[in-house]
Specification:
five-stranded parallel sheet; about 45% helix; 5 strands; Sulphur_relay_DsrE/F-like; about 140 residues; 5 helices; single chain; Hypothetical Protein Ychn, Chain: A; DsrEFH-like; signal; globular
Amino acid sequence: MKQLTILAFLLLSVFTSAIAQTGEPKHKLVMQLNTSDTLIWKGLMNNLKNLKAGWGDSVKVEVVVHGPGVQFMMKDKTTQADKIAQFKKMGIDFVVCENTLRERKVSKDQLLPEAGFVKMGVGEIILKQEAGWSYIKL
């Protein structure tokens, strides 16, 4: 019986270690940005700074930008280019809705190089929520 208990403990340790090594973040957060309000943009940057300072690599964040928020990712309109580049290097993803780009006649080359793309901004948010991500609308 003692050998069986030791074996069970060892198997549990190996299993737990394998899960820990997957690199899966403990916290997953999708943030919706659909405003051209630069004060909201500044608040977003502060939230991202605090999340990374508090949770480091245990948090995965994706910022979904659509509607009027597309200006946040435009080279000639954003007030946050440097911070976006810093946060991208820290693993935060910034994705832009392709429907918004089409509707507003904005080309991808007008956007910061850190921009990723999704077909539908709202659809991306739904998919993330269905996958268990937390959601914040700014």
